[in-house]
Structure formats: structure tokens, C-alpha cells
Design goal:
single chain, 678 residues, alpha/beta, extended
């Protein structure tokens, strides 16, 4: 007898004392998965039969269950679980962590339970207790589904319990074994012509009854296939054929859900484009309409809330999904995947104000979604919205995964007027006004491409936060901090500390076969983040006011103490980049330049005056005097020979040293005296 359960569930074992729950648990579940109420009594009272410790034992049991469910681990509660209030607690806990509640009810005859208990010295209670247990069990069996249990298995005899085989099955949303490559397509909304254009551009072609990619790529449709656009039936036909052929996956959108409810005879408001879809279905030829509508209803009903893909690295959902919902199943998961999260308020257009969940997202998986049209896709904390409002005259966009390349086709025309202008989508108070302390405090272990991991200890994180909060610029601008390169090995050539040979040898050993050699500008390291205009700065970096960029040091501090100087330099830089065609050449409206700001003396004047200039002056003066003395000795007939040559060479070196740094030092009286070398 095969009994299937989800591989992520909260499983209750239910039965009278002596029914064999612990034996059943040991046979079918790992020891770490089973939380026994008897075992927890022993942990808190040193006596598994001490009923006075029951409350504390269940506190321990549910605490551990909470930790396991939060980590998405199957959890089994081995207790009698005969009281409705105990089962209610378990169902609420399962729902809290979006786990499916399941129950195995072991309906063993009373006589068998009594016989087993007589063989156990710790079971000293009377037969009336077992009789009461059996009665409670049988009264509860019919109502388990109504209590919220999604999986109920009743085992009605010792033979059935002995022969049972528990089979774990992944949730329908769990596709971690499928790694792609995928082409993830945003909201189509009946734009059939644009969808065919996009599939063509992605390399798909019709063949064998469905669109296919020659390299075996698969499309993923993010829902809202229908409504508002000119041909929702055509889109449905194309997507249904691809899904049936295995060349595509699709998740359900809120418009798809609403259409399914309408086709199923439910009473729904015929708004937001549904009327157009129903009219298009009604216009189908008579022999086609009824079977197509039935097929579409079945297809829409089978669409999942989301898919968890590529070993857990990718999640696709219509409106996005919080990290704690990935690969889980509950009504709350489906609700979020269909509609996202709102604040409970409405805006001036009468639409719900959406909470920007992506700003708080900290999950490891990339989440790709649609639902709320955006002017252009933008990665936010490993999330990306690819609904670019095709039906409203924008574009139909796809994300190539794992390449993370975007492909778009423009709308042929505007088919519908958005209730709320896309560029004016409402947002909450800026979530970046304050840093999230949990992102920057405590011990952190960060994995990188080059190193297995980097550990940031709590005390270092605290010190870093203190420095950032007191000295650094607005962290919204800090998209980049320049690396500090280690010096090359000491040169083996006589008289030289460093030589390019050692650098080339290092690169060769590390597999770098091509090196670009540039002039080294001796200035002050300056990172310049510059936007084409203040509007770009406001939308991309969420900064207030008319700023169009920022200039900061290698440690994230403001480069100029005078904001007017910074602003004037940025204006000059924007003018130069615009004149050079930079924005069009690189298809961008903002850039980050890792640069040297010259002259060196503009920022390092004190360093020059206190260290570099004194060395040159002292060396030149001292060597001049020494050479004068050597010349006088020569005049008296003393043979100074090689000593004079050595001092001449040292003086030449001192003068060259002086000339080297002076190339990068000149008076600065205004903006025209500054130079920027990216």
C-alpha cells in the first residue's frame, strides 16, 4: 500500500497509546525528522511518562518544529494528536510556514493497544485511557479534511500499517531539477503578433505542432496571457501547444485566474479587459468555440502559482514571491504569486498601492516576475520585473536565463490605455532612507567567485557601519568601490625594486593571456557616478533633489568638500560625454567611472609638502653640496674617480624623481585647472 505525502509537510501521527505510532515513524522517517512528545518529556523531566511535564514538552516540540519548517524540512509530530485543539495548533503552524499539513491516523483495535501497553512497564494507566483514545480517534476521522489537512491517510488494521510504504513526492511547484536554459517572457495580454515576433527573435520556430527552439531552450510564460490585447485566444492556443509539447512552462496570472473563474460559471466582474477576451472567444467559429473553451478552462485551472527551478537558483511567479514562500504551498503563497502585496490603500486612480516587496528581498534565488508594468526592467536585490507594458504600447520583453540577457520587441500599437500611467507607478516612502540594520550587522559569511568564502566578524561589521554612517556619502550612490592591487614581486634585476617582467610573469601564471598597458596617471583616485540628467538619478538611484551624480574617494567619502565644485565638474563631464556620443554608443543613461583626478596636488597638497617635496629638495641640496666638495677635491689633485660618478648619478636620480611628481602638481584656481583621467 503506497501512501504519498509531499516532501515538504508537517505530518501528524495520530492514534491511541499502543497503536504503533513510534514504530511507524521509525520505519518511514529519519530520526531527525521525528519529534516525539514522549522524548520531549524526557528532555525536560528525565521521565517520558511524567504527564506533569506535558506542557513544557510540547513547548520544546513546537519550538523545534518551528525551526525545521522555517528551513523547509519535513517534520513529523509523534503524539496522540487526538484533541482538536492540538491538531488546530499544528495546522496553524503548517500554514505559517506554507507547509502542507498531513496526517496518518492509525486506527488499531483497542485490544491490540491494550496488549502492547501491558508489555511496557512505563504504561501504568488503565484500560479506560486507551478506550477513550480510540473513541476520540474515530470521532475525529471524518472531520480531518475540514480541519485543514491536505493529505489524510487512515490505516485501519495492523496488517495495513505493517505493509504500508510511505512515498514522498515533490510539490507541483518544485522543479529544481530543471536548469534550463529558459526564455522568461513577461505579460502578453493577448498581444499575439508581438509574441510571435519575440519568439522569432529568441530563435524559436513553429514545427511539430508547437513553437520550438533548435537548441532545446524552453520558454516560461509569467502569466496574464489574456485580456486587453487583440487576440487572447491566439495567445492561449500558442502557449497551450508549447506547454503540451514540453517546450514551455507557464504560471498563472491574475487575469488568467479571473478568466478561468468566468469560464467555470463563477460570478466575476467583466472589467480590466475581460470583456474583450470573452468577445474574442465568442467570435470563434461554432465548431471550434466549445472544445477550445473547454480546453482553455482545463489549461488555466492547471497552471501553478510559481516554479522553483535550477537547483533553487531561480523562481518565476506572476507577481513575484518572497523568499520564505519559494517552493512551498499554501493559499497565501498563491495569493502573493497572483497579486503581490498591497498596503491596503488606494491611489488617486483608484488602484491599490503596492508594497515594494523586492526592496526588502534578501533571498538567494533570482525572482523573475511581471504583473506591474515598468518602463524598463531593472534588477533589484536579485529580482527582475519583465512586464514592460506591451499591451499599453510599450514592449514585450524576455529574459534569457542563465545568460541574464534581455530581449524585447516593441508593441505594434497601443491596444489599451493604462488606468495609471506606467511611469507614475506609486511607491511607498523611499525604503532606502534608512539602512536595514540586519543587512550590515552581526557575523557575515560571503561566498565569492574567487574565494570559497569571506568572513566578516561582528566587531568588524560594527566598525564598518560606524565609519559608513559618519563619513561616507549617501549609500544609494555607492555602487562600486575600487580594488587595491597588491604590488608585484620584488625585481631580480640589480638596482630595481619593481619591473614589468614580474607583473607579466604573474599574469601568465594565473592564465591571463592578454594585458592592456595604459599610462598611469598620478592623481587622486576618484569614482564618478554620473547620470545624463537629474531624472535618471532620481529613478535609478532614488536620490532626492536635483543631483545628477556624485564623486567620491576609494573609501566612499565625498571627494570635494565644496558641493558647488562637484556639481560644476559633473556638468562639464556630462557635456563632454554627450558631445562624444557616449550615451548612445553604450546604450545607457548613467555610468560609473573609476578615475584619477589631476592634479595630484589638488587633493594631496599636504602630502606633497610634507613628504615628497622635502625628499626632493633635501636630496638635491645635499647632493649639490657633496658634488661641490668633490669638485674642490678634484681641483686640489685628489682623485675622486668613481665617487664623483656615483654622486652625479644620484643627483640625476633626485632631479628625475622631482620632475616625476611635479608633472602632476600645478596650481588650481578653478574648474579649468582640473583634469579627469578614467
Amino acid at each position: 500500500m503506497r501512501l504519498s505525502i509531499p516532501d515538504f509537510a508537517l505530518v501528524l501521527l495520530m492514534g491511541a497509546s499502543g497503536s504503533g505510532k513510534s514504530t511507524f515513524a521509525a520505519r518511514h522517517f529519519r530520526p531527525t525528522e521525528v519529534l516525539s512528545s514522549d522524548r520531549c518529556r524526557g528532555l525536560v523531566a528525565d521521565d517520558e511518562s511524567d504527564q506533569s511535564a506535558t506542557a513544557d514538552a510540547f513547548d520544546v516540540l513546537y519550538y523545534i518544529a518551528t525551526k525545521r519548517l522555517a528551513a523547509r524540512r519535513l517534520t513529523v509530530i509523534d503524539a496522540t494528536n487526538l484533541r482538536p485543539e492540538d491538531r488546530k495548533h499544528a495546522v496553524e503552524l503548517a500554514r505559517r510556514f506554507h507547509a502542507l499539513p498531513a496526517v496518518f491516523a492509525l486506527d488499531v483495535p483497542e485490544a491490540v493497544c491494550l496488549e502492547r501497553n501491558r508489555a511496557r512497564p512505563d504504561r501504568t494507566f488503565g484500560a479506560h485511557v486507551v478506550r477513550s483514545h480510540v473513541q476520540l480517534l474515530r470521532r475525529s476521522l471524518r472531520g480531518l479534511a475540514r480541519e485543514g489537512f491536505r493529505v489524510v491517510h487512515t490505516l485501519g488494521s495492523v496488517e495495513v500499517i505493517t505493509e504500508a510504504e510511505v512515498v514522498r513526492e515533490p510539490l507541483f511547484t518544485d522543479r529544481r531539477g530543471e536548469a534550463g536554459p529558459f526564455d522568461i517572457i513577461g505579460d502578453v495580454h493577448g498581444c499575439f503578433g508581438e509574441l510571435m515576433q519575440l519568439l522569432n527573435q529568441l530563435g524559436y520556430a513553429p514545427g511539430g505542432g508547437a513553437w520550438r527552439h533548435p537548441d532545446g531552450r524552453r520558454a516560461i510564460f509569467l502569466g496574464d496571457l489574456v485580456d486587453r490585447g487583440p487576440d487572447s485566444p491566439g495567445v492561449l492556443r500558442l502557449v497551450m501547444d508549447m506547454v503540451a509539447a514540453g517546450t514551455a512552462l507557464a504560471v498563472q496570472g491574475n487575469h488568467d485566474h479571473k478568466l478561468h473563474r468566468k469560464l467555470s460559471g463563477r460570478d466575476v466582474a467583466v472589467t480590466h479587459g475581460l470583456a474583450e477576451t470573452l468577445a474574442q472567444l465568442e467570435a470563434l467559429p461554432d465548431p471550434v468555440r466549445a472544445p477550445f473553451t473547454t480546453e482553455a478552462r482545463t489549461f488555466l485551472d492547471g497552471l501553478r502559482s510559481h516554479y522553483w527551478l535550477d537547483g533553487g537558483k531561480l523562481v518565476v511567479a506572476h507577481a513575484g514571491l518572497k523568499a520564505e514562500m519559494h517552493g512551498r504551498g499554501s493559499a497565501a503563497v498563491r495569493e502573493f504569486a497572483l497579486y503581490g502585496e498591497t498596503t491596503g490603500e488606494t491611489d488617486v486612480f483608484g488602484l491599490p498601492v503596492r508594497y515594494e516587496w523586492a526592496r526588502d528581498y534578501r533571498g538567494e534565488a533570482a525572482v523573475v516576475y511581471g504583473h506591474t508594468p515598468v518602463p524598463a526592467p531593472e534588477w533589484v536585490n536579485r529580482t527582475l520585473c519583465v512586464d514592460t507594458g506591451c499591451v499599453f504600447g510599450g514592449q514585450l520583453t524576455a529574459l534569457r536565463y542563465p545568460e541574464r540577457a534581455l530581449v524585447s520587441v516593441p508593441a505594434m500599437r497601443q491596444y489599451a490605455e493604462p488606468v495609471r500611467p506606467i511611469a507614475a507607478a506609486p511607491v511607498l516612502a523611499d525604503p532606502y532612507d534608512l539602512l536595514d540594520i540586519e543587512d550590515v550587522s552581526g557575523k557575515r559569511i560571503i561566498t565569492t567567485v574567487l574565494l570559497p568564502s569571506i568572513t566578516v566578524r561582528a566587531e568588524n561589521a560594527a566598525a564598518g557601519l560606524e565609519v559608513m554612517s559618519r563619513f561616507c556619502i549617501d549609500p544609494r550612490w555607492l555602487v562600486y568601490l575600487p580594488p587595491t592591487m597588491s604590488p608585484v614581486e620584488t625585481s631580480t634585476r640589480d638596482g630595481l625594486l619593481e619591473h614589468p617582467d614580474e607583473a607579466f610573469t604573474f599574469f601568465r601564471k594565473t592564465g591571463v593571456g592578454r594585458v592592456v598597458v595604459e599610462e598611469k596617471h598620478m592623481g587622486s583616485r576618484a569614482v564618478v557616478v554620473v547620470c545624463r540628467d537629474a531624472g535618471v538619478a532620481a529613478s535609478r538611484f532614488r536620490v532626492p533633489g536635483p543631483q545628477r551624480g556624485v564623486i567620491y574617494t576609494r573609501t566612499g567619502r565625498a571627494f570635494f568638500s565644496d558641493p558647488a565644485t562637484e556639481s560644476a565638474l559633473l556638468d562639464r563631464l556630462v557635456g563632454a560625454m554627450t558631445a562624444a556620443g557616449f550615451w548612445d554608443e553604450f546604450s545607457t543613461d548613467w555610468a560609473c567611472l573609476d578615475a584619477e583626478l589631476l592634479p595630484w596636488s589638488a587633493k594631496a597638497g599636504a602630502l606633497i609638502e610634507e613628504q615628497y617635496a622635502p625628499v626632493g629638495v633635501a636630496a638635491t641640496a645635499g647632493l649639490d653640496a657633496a658634488i661641490g666638495l668633490l669638485a674642490a677635491a678634484d681641483a686640489r689633485g685628489v682623485d675622486t674617480g668613481s665617487l664623483r660618478d656615483r654622486f652625479d648619478a644620484r643627483l640625476d636620480g633626485a632631479r628625475r624623481y622631482d620632475a616625476a611628481w611635479r608633472r602632476y602638481a600645478w596650481p588650481v584656481h578653478g574648474l579649468e585647472d582640473l583634469k579627469l583621467a578614467p
